[in-house]
Design brief:
By secondary structure, this protein is an alpha/beta fold. It has 5 helices and 5 strands. It has a 5-stranded parallel sheet with strand order 2-1-3-4-5, sandwiched between helices. Helix 1 links the parallel strand 1 and strand 2. The longest helix has 17 residues.
């Protein structure tokens, strides 16, 4: 069984780059879904089982921070691991997301960095039950 992943980023170029990187990472992938903001991302999480969310921070309509806050408030979504990929420079903002359980990757990234972050987030998801 592969890992079902939801990629949430307002840049279609970045979503494609993340997808390519995932394919090069050696991870066993299941179904990959894409959303361009937090509202679309939550809609997909309501409909489909995801093992992991890869999340941008700066997006229109609903940003990654607000999406993650909503995920944590929803018992059906709160245990889904989140990997943040962003150029975000605010340490306060990043620390807040890490406190909520996210793993943070700064752009630019390599397949190895993405693979390690995904594996780490899936492990921590399991340990929290
Ligand atoms: Mg963005």
């Amino acid at each position: 069984m592969g890992i079902n992943i939801l990629i949430v980023d307002d840049s279609s170029v970045m979503r494609t780059m993340i997808l390519k990187t995932l394919r090069m990472s050696g991870l066993s992938l299941g179904d990959i879904y894409e959303a361009s903001n937090g509202v679309e991302g939550l809609e997909i999480l309501n409909m489909r089982w995801m093992d992991l969310v890869i999340l941008d921070i700066n997006m229109p309509v609903m940003n990654g921070e607000d999406m993650m806050i909503r995920m944590k408030a929803n018992p059906e979504m709160r245990d889904i691991p989140v990997v943040i990929i962003s150029t975000e420079g605010s340490k306060t903002r990043i620390d807040g997301l890490i406190k909520m359980g996210a793993i943070f990757i700064r752009k630019p990234f390599t397949p190895e960095i993405v693979r390690d972050a995904v594996n780490q987030s899936l492990r921590s998801g399991v340990s929290h039950g």
